[in-house]
Amino acid sequence: MPLAVDVREEAAVKAAIEQTAARFGGIDIVVNNASAIQLTPVAATDMRRYDLMQQINARGTFMVSKYALPFLAKAANPHILMLSPPLDMKEKWFAPATAYAMAKFGMSLVVLGLAGEQRGRIAVNALWPRTTIATAAIKNLLGGDAIMRASRTPEILAEAAYCIFHKPKSFTGNFLIDDTFLSREGVTDFDQYRVDPSQPLQVDFFVPDESAPPPGVSLKAKV
User: Fold this and answer.
1) According to CATH, what is the number of the domain 10-193?
2) Which H or E element spans position 94?
């Protein structure tokens, strides 16, 4: 059921969630993926763009989750999933793009708080890609076809999300990196997700330095 929704508008979000629950008899899963991005330092960040990132990323995630809670509480195994990074509070993530980092880590702070608030009732987790993912946003913002070839396909995140949603609701408060999590779930072939195996993979923003790829997985180009 497609719905046109501005995630900044409270009435629109509330109505969309209510319509969805009415149409399908409830809500089992919420995925907070919507994000705005602008990779500029403070001096070069227009305040309207700052507001947009905060309103969509952090506030939107908070609001969608808030209005979904009563419906999720009635589900057998409810999950909320944020596409947001581990809470790795390092200067290097903030200095190049403070506004975006604040907005994106704001989504992760919702995970931290809401997982504790809803523990035992609703699972709340974060999922983040180790590498850039071949999407239109990556292509348009980070370097065109070259960055696309150095990326993994969206399927890696889809399969990770699928596995998360099949976990019991006691699986909560986790900040997961896609390949590390899938490796624990039994996936061994990560080359299947490469757009172009001849290219080295580009590591994404916000991946903690101590988070190494799973055993047997290389980000180097395949010869």
Assistant:
1) 3.40.50.720
2) helix 91-94
Residues 147 and 202 sit within 8 Å (Cβ to Cβ): yes
Going from the first residue of the chain to its last (223 residues), give the mean pLDDT of each consecutive group of 10, the final group possibly shorter. 96 98 98 95 98 98 98 98 98 97 98 98 98 87 84 98 98 98 97 96 96 95 86
C-beta atoms surrounding 223 within 10 Å? 5
Told to judge if 50 belongs to the known catalytic residues of this protein, a careful annotator would answer no
Helix (H, G, I), strand (E, B) or coil at 78: coil
> Structure tokens of 135?
């999407």
151: which residues sit within 8 A by CB, 6+ positions away?
131, 132, 133, 134, 138, 195, 201, 202
**Angle at the Cα of 104 (from 102 to 108), degrees rounded to 5?**
105
Residue 175 in contact with residue 126, Cβ under 8 Å? yes
Euclidean distance between CA atoms 138 and 136, whole angstroms: 5
State the catalytic residue, choosing from 50, 67, 100, 193.
100
Q: What residue spans define the domains of the chain?
A: 10-193
